[in-house]
Specification:
The structure holds two protein chains of two kinds. Chain A is of the alpha/beta class. Chain A folds into two domains: about 300 residues, Alpha-Beta Barrel (7-stranded beta/alpha barrel), CATH 3.20.110.20; about 100 residues, no CATH class. Chain A contains 22 helices and 13 strands. The N terminus of chain A is likely disordered. By secondary structure, chain B is α/β, with parallel strands linked by helices. Chain B is about 45% helix and about 15% strand. In chain B, α7 packs across α10, α8 packs across α13 and α11 crosses α14. Classes of the chains: A alpha/beta, B alpha/beta. Chains A and B meet through α13 and β13 of A and α7 and α14 of B.
Chain lengths: ~525, ~375
């Protein structure tokens, strides 16, 4: 037994999140303090089952300044293949080695393998890659359904693209494993209640989502919930992040975490089944750290056995009677008609990119490129932090986030330009195009930059709806609007019309009408 | 406990003249006590006596050239009103702040309670003043504390402050925090639509300051922090709501910054802003309790606040808010730090809401005040 096994579980991270001083805690709050409150004290049995999910995904990143030359004609990073190989050898294969020990000891795992990852794995044609894909056929492995590209398609106003990608992933998994996924994974909260029916139609029997921090007061992620009669499984983010974020943190007062301690926490955590998610990226560590992490994961099956915890597949727990009804909005997902914060779209750059991406459906004829640009990873890289709930914590500077946004918009703009000649009306396509920051319209008050920019005509009309009068007047007096519309977007008709508008509402209305006309010219 | 006849003296209320945080605190306390006792509320205002929410309001309209003369006249007129209702006699006479000190002087032989919601020293941003009003008000505060049978403060901080400033003995003081009705402050809405009304992008993080624009509340500290915040995160927007002496100067300093001054805003607008913002900042130099904190928590908002007074006592650092020293660079650090983490900022807001429900609900505060009254009546 190590020192950490003997210390009562009052660690800083946990107490900081849970306790507000010496207040009596409602029972529901105690769910994440398994070591402190024994299952007997809670009058609820501890978890006897664990669903361990390994996530493997590698998107096609757009090239930022360093790895794609300006006129290379390449849409995505030119080092994509090398980077993917590094990901395989550094993260995926070590992860699979560990997971093989789980399977050898009779434990089961859930595998969340994205369509783009499978596609790149298949292209490798190496024995290791083939072995990995063969794992999908293993009886103790269950594949989790998702959008093929792990994309933001779930946020589009039309569910068609989302349905297409989910179906394509399910077909691919069925081809490889002979079994169709039964549980659908919501990635990055990109989902809303309007997608429940398509998911059910595609044959899924349950949803897998994240038990966010803010659900703590009312919900226990170790139970099954339901949403419109579809079972919802929630990941235990605290325990997932113990491994993902805190395992290597030597300032954590539970450091070093051992398999025995972790198994005991699971066994003492009240509920039916603990769902843990691990990103393969977590295995991409080197030296002693890698050894201790690998040992921890490989020791876990025996430790779980000693604590009386069995492993289970997600589809085997969906039959448990639901603990309660869950609204997807409570999980942080948007309602069908709004895209709010916490849906994977957190900032203005992500919002601009998302709107341009959705519009690009009719401007980029190369469907594969358009879909690769939908990956949520692109949007994560436009923010300065990401990674809760079992993912590697990624932090970047504002400049890095901006650079990625800029590179993404340039890529999208370049794709649209390349495809323009295949469209019905090239002038209309030009007017509706996505713009990189260099040619976007940046709103200014006369004293300062307002903080928002229009990267397309569509976004321009949305911003005109709420800009303050002084901002409109400033640009109107300088004739910035008609100049930008005619010189950058090439739409002289709209440029003349907008010059006559004296109020922002009037201008917004005129732009909206023109956008509608332009789409009609294209379709 | 037997039903008591209670008189509350306060120069403001939610149903007449409203100045700041004192009016909701005193009005709601009277209402919660009114559910068990006969409560009369003596305050400024027009019109005849009215019964509102189990409380009988008695109004008067004082006059005076200076604040001291005005409050002396207030005491005189309220005493007249008081005497009209003093049969049968009141069991408890409760004074809120110094404004009715002359009435307290007059009623010193009765069972009196004096509540300190703040001190003149605190209202001046922890500074002593040489000017006549400061001296006179401080003297009245000192006198009230010694005349009253028992003293109530809204936080431990204020308790210590009046012990230090006015030499009021500790055994005479009980801390009873302000309560709140959290349901009055929570509004389910689309934050983006509210932000748009202020010319702010729906996804721009919005930091809200609400309060009087006076030195005590530290709006200048927030304004100094703004350039440091936007250096780290360029899209953060600020709204400073409220009026006060410093408004003009602050507006001048913010001309090139993403800060909007709304001036005074009605309650409905305040609720919308409170629920639409991402973070509430309370940069006070002195804050006996900090009502804005409990209001922010009621709306499930995280607060960044200075480590002073009631704010210091009530916030659990990095659990339901972030406490910082009274410095603009510290404020800037905390705002930049927490605004980056939408999940954590929300969790802190929810943790604050839990605290409000368990610790600051009016039923609990009413029971605490009942215990103070019992103690005064029993002569303990």
């Amino acid at each position: 037994m190590t020192v950490s096994d003997e210390i009562p579980r009052l660690d800083r991270n946990y107490s900081a999140h849970i306790y507000g001083g010496p207040l009596p805690l409602p029972d529901t709050l105690r769910i994440y303090t398994p070591g402190l409150y024994s299952s007997h004290a809670m009058n609820e049995p501890g978890c006897r089952r664990l669903c361990m999910e390994l996530s493997i995904h590698y998107p096609y990143f757009v090239g930022t300044m360093g790895n794609v030359p300006a006129n290379s004609g390449s849409t995505f990073s030119r080092t994509q293949k090398e980077d993917f190989r590094k990901y395989l050898s550094g993260a995926v294969f070590p992860a699979m080695d560990c997971m093989s020990t789980w399977l050898d000891s009779g434990k089961s795992i859930a595998l969340s393998l994205s369509g783009v990852a499978i596609e790149q794995l298949a292209a490798e044609e190496t024995d290791s890659a083939t072995c990995l894909l063969d794992l999908l056929k293993h009886q103790s492995v269950e594949s989790i359904g998702q959008t093929y590209y792990r994309s933001v398609a779930g946020l589009f106003s039309d569910a068609g693209e989302f349905t297409h990608q989910v179906g394509r992933h399910a077909d691919l998994v069925e081809d490889l494993s002979g079994r169709r996924p039964r549980v659908f994974e919501i990635t990055e909260f990109v989902f809303n209640s309007a997608l429940i029916d398509p998911i059910r139609t595609l044959g899924f029997q349950a949803l897998y989502s994240e038990g966010s921090e803010h659900l703590l007061p009312t919900m226990n992620p170790n139970y099954v919930y339901s949403c419109q009669d579809l079972p919802v499984l929630l990941r235990n983010c605290r325990l997932s992040d113990d491994i993902a974020h805190r395992f290597h943190d030597y300032t954590w007062d539970r450091f070093p975490l051992t398999a025995g301690t972790f198994a005991r926490w699971i066994a003492e955590s009240p509920g039916d089944c603990v769902h843990i998610r691990l990103d393969a990226d977590l295995f991409a560590v080197t030296g002693d750290t890698a050894q201790s992490f690998k040992k921890f994961i490989c020791d876990l099956p025996d430790a779980l056995h000693s604590c009386g915890v069995a492993t289970a597949l997600p589809s085997s727990v969906i039959g448990n009677s639901p603990r309660g009804e869950l609204r997807l909005e409570e999980l942080g997902m948007c309602s069908p008609d709004t895209v709010s914060a916490l849906t994977g779209i957190h900032n203005m750059h992500q919002q601009s990119a998302f709107w341009c991406l959705e519009d690009a459906r009719d401007l980029v004829t190369d469907r594969e490129t358009w879909r690769r640009l939908q990956s949520t990873d692109h949007f994560s890289r436009m923010a300065i932090s990401s990674g809760p709930c079992g993912r590697v914590l990624v932090r970047s500077t504002s400049q890095e986030a901006y650079d990625y946004f800029s590179a993404y918009m340039q890529t999208l703009a370049r794709c649209e330009e390349t495809c323009r000649e295949k469209l019905r009306s090239q002038p209309a396509a030009r007017a509706l195009q996505c713009l990189p920051p260099e040619t976007a319209f940046h709103f200014h008050s006369g004293y300062r930059f307002t903080g928002y920019s229009a990267h397309s005509l569509h976004e321009f009309s949305r911003i005109l709806e709420f800009i303050p009068d002084e901002v409109f007047r400033f640009h109107h007096e300088r004739m910035d609007f008609p100049r930008w519309i005619s010189e950058v977007l090439g739409d002289t008709t709209l440029a003349e019309n907008i010059d006559r508008c004296t109020e922002s509402d009037q201008a917004a209305q005129r732009v909206r009408e023109r956008v509608r006309e332009l789409w009609q010219l294209l379709r | 406990m037997a039903t008591l006849k209670i008189a509350q003296f306060c120069w403001e209320s939610l149903h007449s003249v409203r100045e700041g945080g004192l009016s909701p605190a005193a009005t709601h306390l009277a209402e919660v006590l009114g559910t068990k006792h006969e409560v009369h509320f003596f305050t400024r205002g027009d019109g005849p006596d009215r019964n509102i929410g189990n409380v009988i309001y008695h109004f008067c309209q004082p006059e005076g050239d200076t604040i001291i003369e005005y409050c002396m006249d207030l005491s005189r007129k309220l005493l007249t009103k008081f005497r009209e209702s003093d049969t049968p006699p009141f069991d408890i006479i409760h004074f809120h702040d110094w404004h009715c000190s002359d009435a307290l002087e007059e009623l010193r032989s009765r069972k009196t309670v004096m509540s300190y919601h703040s001190t003149e020293y605190g209202r001046n941003g922890n500074n002593f003043g040489e000017w006549p009003e400061f001296q006179a008000i401080s003297a009245k505060e000192w006198r009230c504390g010694h005349l009253a049978r028992h003293v109530v403060t809204v936080s431990r901080h204020t308790e210590t402050e009046i012990m230090w400033l006015y030499g009021i003995p500790e055994h005479k003081i009980t801390v009873v925090p302000n309560g709140i009705y959290p349901e009055h402050y929570y509004l389910p809405l689309d934050p983006g639509s509210v932000k748009k009304r202020y010319g702010i992008h729906p996804l721009a993080p919005l930091v809200l300051f609400i309060g009087r624009l006076v030195y005590q509340k530290g709006p200048d500290l927030l304004v100094d922090a703004v350039p440091q915040v936007i250096k780290r995160r360029w899209d953060v927007q600020f709204i400073i709501a409220g009026k006060g002496d410093m408004k003009q100067e602050l507006e001048r300093r913010c001309r090139t910054l993403p800060v909007r001054f709304t001036g005074y805003i009605p309650d409905e607008e305040y609720l919308q802003l409170l629920n639409a913002c991402d973070l509430v900042v309370i940069p006070s130099r002195n804050e006996p309790f900090g009502l804005v904190l409990t209001e922010a928590w009621s709306a499930e908002k995280c607060a960044v606040a200075t480590d002073v007074g009631g704010l210091s006592e009530n916030i659990d650092d990095f659990v339901d808010g972030i406490k910082v020293p009274v410095r603009s660079d510290s404020l800037a650090w905390a705002i930049s730090y927490i605004i980056e983490d939408p999940v954590r900022i929300r969790a802190m807001g929810v943790a604050g809401k839990r605290k409000v429900l368990s610790r600051f609900n009016w039923a609990r505060i009413g029971r605490m005040m009942d215990m103070v009254y019992t103690r005064v009546i029993d002569g303990r």
